[in-house]
Amino acid sequence: MLTESGCRSRRARLFNALAPTIDRVVLTSPEAIAWCSGFAASPFVFRSQGATAVLILSRSGDARLVVDNLQEPFAARALGVSVEMPVWYRCVEAASDRRALVVDAALAALRELGAGDIAVESAHCPLPLASEIGRPMHDLGPALALARRSKDRDEIDQISRCFEIATQALDTTRANVRPGWTELDLYRSVAEQANQAAGETVSVYGDFVCGVGCEAGGGPPTSRVVRAGDLILLDFSVVLQGYRGDFASTFVCEGEPSREWSAMETACLAALDAAAATLRPGQPARDVHAAAVRVFAEQHLADHFPHHTGHGIGLGHPEAPFLVPQSEEVLAVGDVVTVEPGLYQPGIGGMRFEHAWEITPTGSRQLTTHKTRL
Amino acid sequence: MLTESGCRSRRARLFNALAPTIDRVVLTSPEAIAWCSGFAASPFVFRSQGATAVLILSRSGDARLVVDNLQEPFAARALGVSVEMPVWYRCVEAASDRRALVVDAALAALRELGAGDIAVESAHCPLPLASEIGRPMHDLGPALALARRSKDRDEIDQISRCFEIATQALDTTRANVRPGWTELDLYRSVAEQANQAAGETVSVYGDFVCGVGCEAGGGPPTSRVVRAGDLILLDFSVVLQGYRGDFASTFVCEGEPSREWSAMETACLAALDAAAATLRPGQPARDVHAAAVRVFAEQHLADHFPHHTGHGIGLGHPEAPFLVPQSEEVLAVGDVVTVEPGLYQPGIGGMRFEHAWEITPTGSRQLTTHKTRL
User: Fold this and answer.
1) In this structure, are B346 and B359 located in the same domain?
2) Is the N or the C terminus of chain A less surrounded, counting Cβ atoms within 10 Å?
């Protein structure tokens, strides 16, 4: 769970990054609202279907969450906010336009809060807020992206909880899988175990493939059947209140890895170690990628590593920083990054291993503990 | 699956409902885009996390879908559109603001398409489309809501497919549940069976409760344990490309219903039948509700029926028409409605039974076939 002090500190950090004339911030993307209030509508109930929320922050510290009445259970868990809750539907009258209702209520709240410049998420801010409010509007986008990149302790705890749940789901599925399962069975096993480990319904998404599916690097689960001795590649995320862990592992279903697979595994894990060893504040993101590529190049395998070495993870997936050859980013304290080198050889096999780290003042701390051996 | 002819006919219907000076329609809500193009990003892959889409329709019939390159697999399945796909991320450079990229590309496409009035979904349309395009903007909201209410054949087929999958998941869960299962086990069973029946990952959400949870009318699944002889109330939806079925049933886990439960069941099913018998074009929505209430009132049970008799279902949940006491709506051909009377008596038990119908020229046609007996 995020903490109220964490949410308040993120709001203050955001205002500090904005021009001092800006008195109000209007947040409309689910990620930004979750980031500084913990508000997240569960996708597992009808109440959240097609719902909208607006969060109005004031430099004074005031935070006003505007949602319709069906979102009351989620709003009740938001941290350090007052809630404005227009009635959208109460089983008495026919309901009107749900999004318009919330946007209109947010407009009214903004008018009541009075003059001052406003910063909004332009690309995610509904029109009426511009055309009717008539005050200077600034784009919050870049400042918000920067502020969101460095994770606070409560955010990292939340991501770590996602990893714990995902690890239990991976371990159990790895222990239970048998020849004859389909890729969909792999997904269903992981999702079921994740719900059990979480003690609530959680979203699970990612790559669930076996056999030739591994050579393609991943994909959604299909009816492809796992055979004894097949590779199984699972790269998935568990989502809690908008935050997600993202990790990967590859293993053999009832069998020993071939000599070629073992060589690929050794190379992947060496690339993982080499890239992980570079993780520290001040490190150019491109150099983390270069460290992984170097290992593969020494084994003449670099042509079989077609993707990034890793990426930031949190409310977005992927998000900054990006561990890619032409990144201009530099690692900083509070970054949470995954490292996921992989090799995919047609006719032979494909595999990927992924762990995650937070960047600390002295280097890095690994957040994941799942098994990454064939 | 929606059909291309269905999508084209919905676009034409939408333009017919707008002033003739309006040459372009800009759709930005996932529901509206799914409605007239079949485009729906799967929530089960990383590619869709935080993604945005814009669909630009022209009165001439041209339809341009703007999405970033990670959404290519979903865009490939969109019907009767050309696709504009700016590169957001290709594992080479660090990625920029994903939503801004798509909004900017949509703006450029609008400029290229040239002059003419534009209609947008105001409450869901990003600011830059207003502040930069500088052409008259009209709110599409009411016309869109009206156009969406009457379902086409391909939409009803899609909703029916959701019901088929949900029915298999309900049947299997009902057959398998044993004392000692938790409500979360009920959810996991339904979700797992729905994935199996669909042959792909599908979203499942709703009420999964037992025992006293039924007296509350529903709620998300918890660790509450099912005991022999308990009532189990399942009210859930399966989502396919944005469309959903929504139905409910209540049953006893390993045991016979008590005399009181049987009386409640008889009343609920009589209310369901009475309300369903009123379904026809021209029927005031409030009268459908009144028909259900009348049955309960005759049994002196009306105080235990606190909610609507039913509602429209499709891309929204709930959506028009609303079967409630103060609705001004009148049923029309193409409406898809559920009817779900329920009774909740503290210390005794709670139950709800829900079926769905489409309104046809001569009356109605039932879309659901699941068992609704204790």
Assistant:
1) yes
2) N
